[in-house]
Amino acid sequence: MENLELYLRNLQGEGKSKNTLVNYQNDIRDMLSFVNKKEDEITVEDLVLWKANLNKYASSSIYRKISAIKGYFNFLYDINRIVLNPAKNLKNVKVKNKEKPYIPMEEATALISHGKNARDKAIIAMYLSTGLRVSELIRITLEQYLQNDIYIETKGGSFRRIFLNQSCKEYVDKYLETRKNGAENLFVSNQGTPMRPECINRTLKNIAKRAGMTKNITNHSLRYTFVSDICDNYGIRVAQETIGHKSIKTTERYSKVKEEKIKNVMLSIAL
Question: Which of helix, strand or coil describes residue 194?
């Protein structure tokens, strides 16, 4: 895996996030396992067959996997590890822009009361107060919270500071009264171990079920609620800076200027 390690170090030097590095590493390893050849033996036909086997994944996942492999072979070609680049003309897929599962802030806030315990309520409050990704949420440490000094590493490798409103702090402080000792992470399991993304996602689904909500509640849908609320109340530029997006086009995908709101604005115009 010497070639792969070199490639990952190169990506790290470009400022790629830890999540991207892990995903790319897994994508490349899966491809190498599928074709069962060394990099300098892989042909265009091998990659075409590999690509055809990806139809079980979502278009966004396929796009990432192909991007990882194209980048990998471009890198190997540039450093003279391969003579021919089999991925040079490998076409990527178009990502389908599915409607994001939008939950109005009023509905999302009501979910807090349906949390099974203080920890679950604090998690909902944290999501709706910060718009963090699940990977960012689970990396917050108890020490960071207690010192009111929370910095989050973004996808691009930079850092942004997180500020918690008083309501959110009250929910978290209540949780700390019963928090299990163990890991340094702020949010831990009942055994005191760090919470995993799938555990938090399961927690959210259970909360939604208790609330009688039929909408699909995920980590990302609550992040979407936060960004949409900031866009509505403070504008997309503020939302971009708050959420840590490098490109405003990324923020625009979260912005939910509802058709009903546009309708009401236009109908309210008096001539």
Answer: strand
Alpha helices in 53-115 (DSSP H): 59-78, 105-110
The two three-digit tokens of residue 17, written as one number: 């996030």
pLDDT tens digits along 151-201: 887 666 678 888 899 999 999 999 999 998 889 999 999 889 999 888 898
Residues of the chain with CATH 1.10.150.130: 2-78
Name the architecture of domain 2-78: Orthogonal Bundle (1.10)
- Contact by Cβ (8 Å): 30, 54: no
Please tell me the distance from the alpha carbon of residue 122 to that of residue 185, in angstroms, as a whole number.
Answer: 14
Domain 105-258 has CATH 1.10.443.10: yes
Q: What pTM, to 2 d.p., does this model score?
A: 0.61
Cross-strand partners of 152: 160
